[in-house]
Amino acid sequence: MTQLTSTLLRSTIALGMLALAACAPAPIYKPSPATVATAPNIVAQSPDRYANADVIWGGTVVQVSNFPDRSEVEIVGYPLDSSQRPKLDNNGGWGRFVAVMPGFVEPFNYPTGALITLSGRITGTRPGNVGQATYVFPTVSVAQSHVWTPAEMEAGKSNVSFGIGVGGVIH
Fold first, then answer.
1. N or C: which end of the chain has fewer CB within 10 A?
2. Least confident interval from 2-11, 65-74, 155-164
3. Global pTM?
4. Is residue 76, in this structure, part of any structural domain at all?
């Protein structure tokens, strides 16, 4: 391989990688100096350590409960990708938490199973149940939230894959 061909090949690969990276959406929430990178299940174990910390968490909506002065959205937390989208490839998630929002939240806008990312402040924990099991839910006072559409979840993901394998058809 000549020097020119090698340089051209490296440049093409670099430009291709840059193009793929440019397709990924930017994060939607900017971390504050008080933002901690921890998971809901860790907060549930050591709530005093994380009191009043800011978080950017996401996951899957379990249910919405409306009260006279607030709404609470129960969420199964999952890690976030570089665009702050929930990554559902983790077995069982990061634990559950309750997102507390002021006023009335329309359950239609936060349907069960919807993927959500939010920014807010940890306000404590509270006991509850998941089925018959007792559970400790971290609570987060929500500053902003975003429910992801299927198109947003796919944006910037490459449909190119590389691999080695053997295939065949059995009749």
1. C
2. 2-11
3. 0.77
4. yes
Q: Which CATH number do you get for residue 147? A: 2.40.50.140
Burial class (CB in 10 A: 0-12, 13-18, 19+), 78: buried
Higher pLDDT, 76 or 10: 76
10 is a domain residue = no
Q: According to the model, what pLDDT value does residue 159 have?
A: 47
Backbone angles phi, psi at 31, to 5 degrees: -65, 145
pLDDT score recorded for residue 2: 58
Q: How far apart are CA 128 and CA 36, in angstroms?
A: 24
Residue 96 belongs to what domain range? Answer: 40-154
Q: Is residue 169 part of a domain?
A: no
Contact 78, 59 (CB under 8 A): yes
Cα–Cα distances in Å, from 78 out to 21, 41, 82, 125, 141? 22, 11, 13, 18, 18
Q: Identify whether 108 is part of a domain.
A: yes
Q: Measured in Å, how far apart are the chain's first and last C-alpha atoms?
A: 44
13 vs 131, more confident: 131
| Alpha helices per DSSP H over 24-112 | 40-45
Contacts of 65 (CB under 8 A, 6+ apart): 71, 72, 73, 74
Which is it for strands 133-147 and 54-66: parallel, antiparallel or unpaired? unpaired
What are the structure tokens assigned to 38, written together?
């921890």
40: its two tokens: 């809901």
